[in-house]
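Question: Now follow the chain.
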Amino acid sequence: MEGLSWPSRRGFLKGAAALSATATFVAEAVPPAHADGSINQSLQQGLGGERATEAPGQPVVFIARKVITMERGPLDATAIAVAGKRIVAVGTLDRVKAALGARAYTTDESFKDKVVLPGLIDQHLHPILGALTLAVPVIAPEDWVLPKVVHKAALTPDAYWARLKEAETALTNPSEWLITWGYHALWHGPLDRTALDKLSATRPIAVWHRSCHEFYLNTAALAALGIGEAMTVGKGQYSEQANWREGHFWEGGLNLIMAPMLKVLASPARLAFGLKQMVAYLHGNGVTAYMEPGALYTPDIWKLYEQILGAPETPMYATFIADGRGIVDRVGLDRALDATEAQIAVAPEGPGKKLMFFPGQVKLFADGAIISQLMQMKDGYLDGHKGEWILQPDELEKRARLYWNAGYQIHTHVNGDLGLEVLLTILEKLNAEHPRSDHRCVIVHFANATEDQIARIKKLGAIVSANPYYTVGFADKYSAVGLGPERADMMVRSQSVLDRGIPLSYHSDLPMAPSAPLYLAWCGINRITPSGRVAGPAQRVSVDAALRAITIEAAYSWRKEDQIGSIAPGKIANFTVLEEDPYIVAPEKLKDIPVTATVFEGKVYPVARG
């Protein structure tokens, strides 16, 4: 996409630790609003409307009730001048006019009664998973509100099985697969192949766990996929994370079934429908940019991405980083860097693009899924079950060292405090061996942590992208099962991160949480569980911190803070338009503020309602 262009990866690997926008994209170099709150004087002048950056085309001046810039420092803004894809001035209407000087302009008063803020960013989600899970019957512990359907929550085993039977009965073709997503044992009770066979002994049935890290299959499904018991033994950790007799496959065990399963699950029709639905869903929630870390890539999937996610009418950036787990598994450590660069080259950044890989960034994995309670915990679980490693610690260290020494920004999935302990120890060792400044290694998810570990994150210079939904969605259940009240309520220690001065962004990890940034902000601000209590009240963050987490800090975590994430001259004209001021409404009502429209690269895209 024009504007999100970086130097080539080879240039990055020659020592550029902190990347900046290329001069060809920025009409006038405008420094970012840094996470530490400092603002360059020239940017202050631009915010004040005393000068405007030059951009091609006749400017359009958008008038608003209020413009929330997310730039540090006071600013009374009610107008934004945009030329082409760029912001050229922001401030009061008089100051914007003065900044434009003799330039002719037009005025757009569509938002004169609305509140405009930077285009909302979902720092981390999964298009394929979001498309596929939400394109099948959703039977989950919470409501899922989609553009044309609402899937109500199933909160008990009886409710779950009633909905599952209803979904099976609705299929008229006796050989058609029943695929459903959202099952969780803590709400829905135990599940195995025998139970699914009682629902149907002939129809293939696949139940996709709420975490997306597990599948349950009936006998007909195993037969349809050609999965015999002998195929699931002797495969090391994969075999340890699979139970053929129960039809249960989790974490690495999914690798034993996913090749044939994807042929059924990711049919072209279902995937196309799901991706289109996902785009409409994200737009309705005000999202203008998102990133998938660890992209699932095949030529066919990418072609569909280009057709739907990269379509001219799609009003958001779809960005990706390479999967350091899958690439190394496929080609080995010796060839991994070349293979990573080859994947990035499939969709490099460039003018006019909205679908691309970020160069010089990679995703790794530590421990298992929080929603399956498979994260690695220092003190274990109350019921005695064990967590899982996605990458064994020694293997994680090998891959982290490879990418660290090559200059990559590393994003690591980690959920348990033991998983975080392993990751921080590895990163500290790598930084001692080969010091790097501004590496911005991202601690991804950040479900469980200690205060000492947060201090180590600060000292290391890493940053945090957290999922604030974990506490809201799961603290009640995890207080009773697995973690106990203290650890459950202290999940996602957001205020502790901010107290240390660590940059904090929020993400949905769709479909782990709804991709609704205002809702994610609401979760971080309120931490209100379904029972109505506040879990870990000391970890609640301010409205301002939560809004920064879904705008400028999310951009900072991608190294894009000089291009998106706030409203300032020289940046891309991406905005989200709200009916109400998030700083004024009661904090518990923030999630209910309607999104009126988005502006993407200077063009207005109204949000359809009803």
Notes: Confidence is low (pLDDT under 50) at residues 1-52. Residues 563 and 571 are 5 Å apart (CA to CA). The first helix runs from residue 9 to 13.
